[in-house]
Amino acid sequence: MVRRVLLASPRGYCAGVERAVDTVELALAHYGAPIYVRKQIVHNAHVVRDLEQRGAIFVESEEEAPKGATIVFSAHGVAPAVHENASRRGLKTIDATCPLVTKVHVQARRYAAEGYTVILIGHAGHEEVEGTMGEAPDATILIESVADAEALDLPAEAKLAYITQTTLSVDETREIIAVLRRRFPQIYAPKKEDICYATSNRQWAVKEMLDEIQLLLVIGSRNSSNSNRLVEVARAHGVAAHLIDDETHIREEWLDGVETVGVTSGASAPEKLVDRVCDWFLARGVDDISPYRLVEEDVEFRLPVELRRELALAESQG
Fold it and tell me: Which residues, in sequence order, are CB contacts of 77 under 8 Å at separation 6+?
């Protein structure tokens, strides 16, 4: 029987997600509905539904937005071809790409311009990877695993640099990089690792509490890379873990023989979903619900420059 629920800290929204969601909300308030958003602004079904109800229209491609419309690019970033296409269609663009993703894009362009073959560690099909690959498609090779790193068919003396998707498993990525360094000792590395602070912090927070819990519930959507990695971190250490969209996905049988449950949330999951999971446990008689540790994140990103200018102009005229 569950007696205690421990809340991981930090958890939930990162600065890049907060900035992206704020961007859509402020654009709706400033321009009025509809505002078009290319792909999901962040990978969370609840956030997307909430913004849809306020007048955001999510489209798979900039081609689906009417000519001249306002379109927001998601936190995951887009390839240069998307910017060109939007410009050609006369779209008013607001780029909500997370600044930490932009950093990886800049590295990809720079390495390719300097004649490096760029090894991108990431997950095929993820929007962030598609955007990064688009910066230097002819110079970039995507690898997803240690096996891919072992199988890379390049000369030992090849001029190589690596970059990574920002939402990967810290441990798994470290293993892949170790293989690349062994096989290509001269490979050039980013000055600062690409995995973002929030992804690293949330994985660290889960690891810290694993000795205290028998089950981890990760609140996040199926397509959220960083949320899936949190599940993997727990399972890799022998602790049962499940990804849930919200409290309605919790299954009673998971709790059999469990005394202490850990709860965390991915970087795109709003805190209200954590509150709802806590209420679910309270309704079942669990009244010992507390933070495992309190760790504050003080990272903040400014709004996209296009939106800042517009809002400042409106304020000066108002």
Answer: 97, 98, 101, 102, 105, 127, 128, 131, 132
Q: Is the pLDDT of residue 49 over 90?
A: yes
CB–CB of 188/161 below 8 Å? yes
Q: Do the Cβ atoms of 278 and 264 come closer than 8 Å?
A: no
Active site residue 296: no
| % pLDDT > 90, the chain | 96
**How does residue 296 score in pLDDT terms, banded at 50, 70 and 90?**
confident
Which residues are 58's β-sheet partners?
37
The domain boundary, picked from 116, 148, 183, lies at: 183
Question: H-type helices in 184-252, by residue range?
Answer: 197-209, 225-236
What are the angstrom distances between the C-alpha of 217 and each of 21, 52, 171, 262, 268? Answer: 24, 27, 20, 6, 15
The pLDDT, as a whole number, for residue 98 is: 97
- The residue segments making up the domain with residue 173 are 100-183
Tell me the average pLDDT across 79-86.
97
pLDDT for residue 157: 86
Distance CA 96, CA 22 (A): 9
As for how many domains the chain has, the answer is 3
Q: What are phi and psi of 293, to 5 degrees?
A: -150, 160
- For 256-282, how does the pLDDT look when each residue is reduced to its tens digit (9 = 90+)? 999 999 999 999 999 999 999 999 999
Residue 289 bridge partners (DSSP): 5
Instruction: Assess if residue 189 is contained within a domain.
Output: no
Residue 138 lies inside a defined structural domain of this protein = yes
Yes or no: say if 266 and 219 are a contact pair by the CB < 8 Å rule.
yes
The CATH number covering residue 149 comes to 3.40.1010.20
Displacement of CA 72 from its chain's centroid (Å)? 17
Residues 162-168 have a mean pLDDT of: 97
User: Which of the residues 18, 62, 127, 128 is marked catalytic?
Assistant: 128
Q: Is residue 29 part of a domain?
A: yes
